[in-house]
Structures are given as C-alpha cells and as structure tokens.
C-alpha cells in the first residue's frame, strides 16, 4: 500500500527559536517530492519530525493514520538519510562500511543486499574501510547506499549529496530515479541544488521561515513565473493586477517578475503593448518567492 | 533515438518539461526521424535517459496520444500514428504565414529592406539556384 504522511498544524521550537510554525501538509505517493527553501527555513526540522527523530512541540505527523513518534511499526517504514551520512549507524570507531551495511540489512525489512553491493561498487566505496576514515563525500555515498537499498516505503534524503562531487551526485540521481521506477515509493528529497534535482521531482514543497509557502506540481510551477520587460509605463499597466515578485529599472525600461500563469490572451496583450515576456527558471522563481526583506 | 540526441536535447527550466518533450517528438515526426508505426521509447526509458520524473514523460505522451500523433498498443507500448506526419504538416502549414512570413516582413521593414528585394531572393530559390 502506498503510504500517506499527514502533517497537521505542526510546530517545533528549540528553546525560544521557532523552527516550524504551523505546517499542514499531506505527502503521498508513489511520487518524488522535493523539499526546498533557504537555510533555516525548517527543511531539516520538518524531515526530522516526519522521520520520528524529533517530537513535535505541537500538532501531529501521522503515517497512514498512526503517529510516527516512538512508533516502531511506523518507523520501520520510514528511512531518513541526512547529509554527510550522519545517519550512518555505527556503535564504535572501529566500525567499517560493511558493518554499517550489515546493521541496515538487519534493521530494514525490504533491504536488498545485491543492490547494496552494486551501489557500493558504483560509488567506489571500500567495504573494509573504517567509517571514521571516510571523507565527507564518501560518508554521504554510504548514506545514499543505505537509503536506496533499504527500499523503505517512505524514503527521505536530506541534503544527502554533501561533499559528493558532480559525477557522484549524478550517479545518485540516476540510481534514485531508476530504482524509484522499479520500486515506486514515496520519496522526499531536500536540496539546495534546485537546478540539479528539479527534473527528478513530481511535486515541490517550498518552506519559508518555518511555514509552508507552496506544495505544487513541479510542471505546473515551471509555467508560472514570467519576466515582463519594456517601457516603464506599459509594464506598470500590464502588471497592475498581478503578483509582482521583483521589479528592476534601468533608464526607462522596467523588468518585472510576475507569479501566475499567462494565458494566450495575456501574451497577445503583452505583445501588443510592445512588452517582452520571458520565462523564469524554477530556481529563480524560488529565490524571488523567498527573497523577503533582504532583497 | 541514440546517444547523440541526448547531447542536442537539453531541456531547460523555463517551461514545463513535458511540453519540451512533446515538441521534440513532434519535430522528430515532422522531419522524418520518427516514422509511421515506429515504436517510441517507453515512459520509463525516456525518464531514465533524460533524467526526468516518469510522470513528466507520461504527461507528454498523454498529450501526443490525445492529439493523435502517437497511439497506444496495450502491453506493447507507444507508436507513431500513420497519419501523424501529415497531420503535423497541415497544422504547421496553417501557421506558416503568421509565424514565419509576417514577422519576416515586419523585420525587413524595420531594417528598410524593400519587399521587392525579398521577392527577388525567393524567386532565386524557386529556380533552384543558391542566391
């Protein structure tokens, strides 16, 4: 059965700092969801609560109707891999890569040992190497192996590519995509590298200051930003009844980034007014949506 | 489709990727790269090849099936419709004058190129000569 994660009015505070400020969200699958947002927007906090690593201050996270926190049954179906592989389980400093793999094999009901070995080869990891001797990129790669081979119904990668070079990151994206197609499951990927991951995503969850800014189909979002450029007065008239994310002026020319799909009539109107309409890449759209006061 | 196509075909982040995929397949049908009744890659092959979400590829194929460019055969995959090329050519013919000729004339005007000069150039083409 495809799992559904139901998050209701979720709050999380660390002392006087509010990390999550009332998030309500349903995450279902089989689907690859991207979790994006600026530093400190609450991505890691949200994923930690979803995976039962942290207890919510208020509100709830349920997996198929069951609370996840301190719920062994729910937690067996969830796998969270954090950046630089700090979720690589090991008990003492002499532990080696193969020990981490064996522990995961024991803990994970859907563990695929052959696939894990293939991934170890692909990421050029040495099973005999001590975990403490690995570079950040290698630790991340171990984390990726554990996360993929676990085949957990809910698989979460929180900036799991830290320290990985570009070929390793693309190997990760390829493996994630092909294994997801062979074993469809609910995947959440958090990333700063929106340009790199966005094509893998079916849906996008955007956080800002601990709040949910949007949860949308990735393809719908790609058609939603537009940059309108032209003579100042004409641009002002065209954007008057629209959501303007950003405006720039250069002499008598103005460029405005608007949010919202432009239909054929809008485009004809813009052309008639002598305005240029350019699309806005997803990464730029997120930057504009979350720029806030410091732009 | 072969490996070299991948180098040429780079989807950008500026418009929905499914639209870019659909446009690519349409132009491959139009220029004869994809022939009538030829099988196209499956959704999953397409997704893995271009590193895109399979739902995105599926959306492009659904649009092309609806248009009649592709047809589905249960259990076997997707194929190019026998009349796909002719259908696309008819659609492009309709738009040729508004999409290509009118903007060209407008541009020529802004550059003070007399229409006679354009007509002469086109006649060269008709005679099969390189201008």
From TrEMBL, chain A:
Q: Which UniProt keywords apply?
A: ATP-binding, Nucleotide-binding
Domain annotation ABC transporter: ranges: 5-234
Q: Which SMART domains match?
A: AAA
InterPro entries noted in UniProt: AAA+_ATPase, ABC_transporter-like_ATP-bd, P-loop_NTPase
In terms of PROSITE patterns, this protein maps to:
ABC_TRANSPORTER_2
Pfam families referenced in this protein's UniProt entry, alphabetically = ABC_tran
**Entry GO MF terms:** ATP binding
Q: Does the keyword Metal-binding apply?
A: no
Q: What name has this protein been given in UniProt?
A: ABC transporter ATP-binding protein
């Amino acid at each position: 059965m495809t799992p559904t994660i139901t998050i209701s009015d979720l709050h999380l505070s660390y002392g006087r700092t509010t990390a999550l400020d009332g998030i309500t969200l349903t995450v279902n699958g089989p689907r690859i969801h991207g979790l994006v947002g600026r530093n400190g927007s609450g991505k890691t906090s949200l994923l930690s609560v979803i995976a039962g690593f942290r207890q919510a201050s208020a509100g709830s996270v349920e997996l198929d109707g069951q609370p996840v926190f301190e719920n062994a049954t729910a937690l067996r179906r969830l796998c969270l891999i954090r950046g630089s592989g700090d979720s690589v389980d090991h008990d003492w400093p002499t532990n080696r890569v193969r020990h981490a793999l064996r522990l995961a094999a024991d803990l994970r009901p859907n563990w695929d040992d052959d696939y894990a070995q293939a991934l170890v080869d692909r990421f050029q990891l040495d099973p005999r190497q001590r975990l403490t001797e690995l570079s950040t990129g290698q630790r991340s790669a171990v984390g990726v192996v554990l996360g993929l081979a676990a085949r957990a119904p809910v698989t979460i990668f929180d900036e799991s590519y830290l320290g990985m070079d570009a070929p390793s990151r693309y190997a990760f994206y390829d493996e994630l995509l092909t294994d997801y197609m062979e074993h469809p499951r609910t995947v959440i990927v958090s990333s700063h590298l929106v340009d790199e991951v966005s094509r893998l995503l079916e849906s996008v969850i955007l956080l800002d200051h601990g709040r949910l800014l949007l949860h949308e189909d990735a393809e719908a979002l790609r058609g939603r930003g537009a940059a309108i450029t032209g003579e100042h007065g004409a641009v002002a008239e065209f954007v008057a009844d629209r959501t303007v994310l950003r405006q720039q002026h250069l002499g008598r020319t103005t460029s405005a980034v608007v949010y919202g799909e432009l239909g054929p009539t809008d485009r004809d109107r813009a052309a008639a007014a002598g305005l240029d309409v350019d699309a806005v890449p997803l990464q730029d759209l997120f930057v504009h949506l979350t720029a806030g006061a410091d732009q | 489709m072969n490996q070299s196509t991948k180098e040429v075909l780079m989807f950008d982040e500026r418009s929905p990727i499914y639209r870019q995929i659909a446009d690519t397949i349409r132009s491959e049908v139009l220029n004869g790269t994809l022939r009538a009744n030829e099988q196209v890659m499956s959704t999953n092959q397409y997704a893995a090849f271009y590193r895109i979400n399979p739902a995105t590829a599926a959306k492009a194929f659904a649009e092309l099936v609806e248009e009649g460019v592709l047809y589905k055969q249960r259990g076997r995959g997707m194929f190019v419709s026998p009349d796909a090329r002719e259908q696309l050519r008819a659609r492009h013919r309709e738009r040729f004058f508004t999409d290509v000729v009118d903007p060209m004339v407008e541009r020529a005007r802004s550059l003070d190129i007399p229409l006679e000069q354009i007509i002469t150039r086109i006649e060269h083409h008709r005679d099969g000569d390189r201008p």
